[in-house]
Amino acid sequence: MLKTMTTYFDPAADRAARREMLKPWIDESRALLKLAAPLIAMQLAQIGSLTADVIMVGELGKEALAAVSIGAVMFYFAWLVGYGPVMAVSPIVAQILGAHPNDRARVRAAVRMGVWATMLLCVPLMVLLIWARPVLMMLGQDPQIAAAAEPWVHAVALGLPFSLGFGVLRNFAAAIGRQGAVLAISVATLLVNIAMNYTLIYGHFGAPALGVWGAGIASAIAFAFSFFALLCVFLVVPSFKKYHLLHRFWRLDRAKFAEVFRLGGPMGMSMIFEAMLFNSATLMMGIFGAASVAAHQIAMNVGSITFMVPLGIGLAATVRVGLFAGGGNVEGARRAGFTAILCGAGFMSCCAVVIALIPESLTGIYVATADPANADVVELAIPFLYIAAIFQLFDALQVTGQMSLRGLKDAQMPMWIAGLSYWLVGFALAWSLAFWAGFEGFGVWIGLAAGLAIAGLGMVGRFEILSRRRR
User: pLDDT at position 2, please?
Assistant: First the structure.
């Protein structure tokens, strides 16, 4: 890539030669963004459900918002453990199709084993979620917040198998380049979640007002809706039906089952290292009180929304890199990865500027900033958002770099990069600054930014080295 750009800026190179050099990159950008656009929309629809929960529960007060935030730590830990095999489906299918475009039997086996793996993992994970309150108490959370979080966790746990199953089907659709139906269902799921929240949290249309518990039930219903709706599409629409995903559903494919866990294990651990750093940050905030948790959740949600764009680009990069790698086109795989990295970094740099300019306005979306009862939340949320603006670029680098590595089926080294970055650097610094240096929540957010910075540089560096080696 460096050689190409050096030649491009050489005055001796004529205009036609420059266009010829850039053409593969422009073509790749178009192909990547065409694949990424519906994936980004799907991710935004999914984070929209969480945002709806945060905003609608926030109207019940900062204690209710803190309860959902703390409860989400437990639920998303379980979700992440189960999501490892889900992530393995996309690169496996992409490389199969890159090598053999008409090999439906092996594609079907990969999807089937992905579903098997997630369903097997759901049993112990759902049992773990039963113990929400004692686990949260053991982690030092306020007893009242832990008690309020428990019914939300119990309710949303019922949706765990459906959420993971939807993920497997969605990644299969992305790998074959057919995401239109998934996008429509994702938007419909968001609307279902908002409608159920409105009904069950506040008690409209004759339903009882269930508060936080109602938000958990609404999320579980939305998860179930998304899975069954997408499954029905796959059984009816010809472009999906031809794969016969339920054909011999109970037949074990040992090789694919092992591959799903071999790839999914370290991929899942990479996500767990990152996500549990942020979840640990939420638990640390819980020690400082409900206002700190609420402010943290506001800043996290803003950052999560912007993150959906580079995440969608990264998901597309996994497919693009996987297709090139499966077909033996090493140069194409390298170009696809760096195109994704540059697109993600460019977008998040723009987001950083916007967040830094209007932190108070963003906070006002979640809580009434003029209400004196929310003054402590606003006072904390604004500096958190400033730090969130700083790490936007590094967040883009780490996700697009890591997803590009997944397209090469490189899972072990990214796992180590994530573990060392997020825990040896991020968590250690967050804990030290928060408690030893006395910076409290501000120190936690500095630690988060440092962990993301190291991870971002490490993932991109790994892709640079690995893709160059394979040339």
Answer: 46
Condensed to tens digits (0 to 9), the pLDDT of residues 315-332 reads 899 889 988 988 888 899
| Residue 368, φ and ψ in degrees, nearest 5 | -75, 105
Q: What's the 3-state SS for 243-298?
A: CCCCCCCCCCCHHHHHHHHHHHHHHHHHHHHHHHHHHHHHHHHHHHCHHHHHHHHH
Q: pLDDT tens digit string along 26-60?
A: 889 998 988 888 888 877 777 777 677 777 877 77
Global pTM value = 0.74
Question: Per DSSP, which regions of 364-439 are E strands?
Answer: none
CA distance 406 to 80: 17
Q: Which two tokens stand for residue 154?
A: 């119990």
Confidence band of 9 (pLDDT split at 50, 70, 90):
low
Contact 407, 317 (CB under 8 A): yes
* Gyration radius from the chain CA atoms: 22
pLDDT single digits (tens) 13-30: 566 666 777 788 888 999
Give the distance from CA 43 to its chain's centroid: 8
251, burial (CB in 10 Å: exposed 0-12, middle 13-18, buried 19+): exposed
- Mean pLDDT for all residues in the chain: 85
Distances (CA, A) of 245 to 168, 261, 263, 323: 12, 20, 21, 21
- Give me 261's structure tokens: 């866990």
Structure-token match 């939420």, residue found: 282
Alpha helices by DSSP H, listed for 289-391, are 290-326, 330-357, 359-366, 375-390
Cα 88 to Cα 406: distance, rounded to the nearest angstrom:
8
Q: At 36, which amino acid appears? A: A
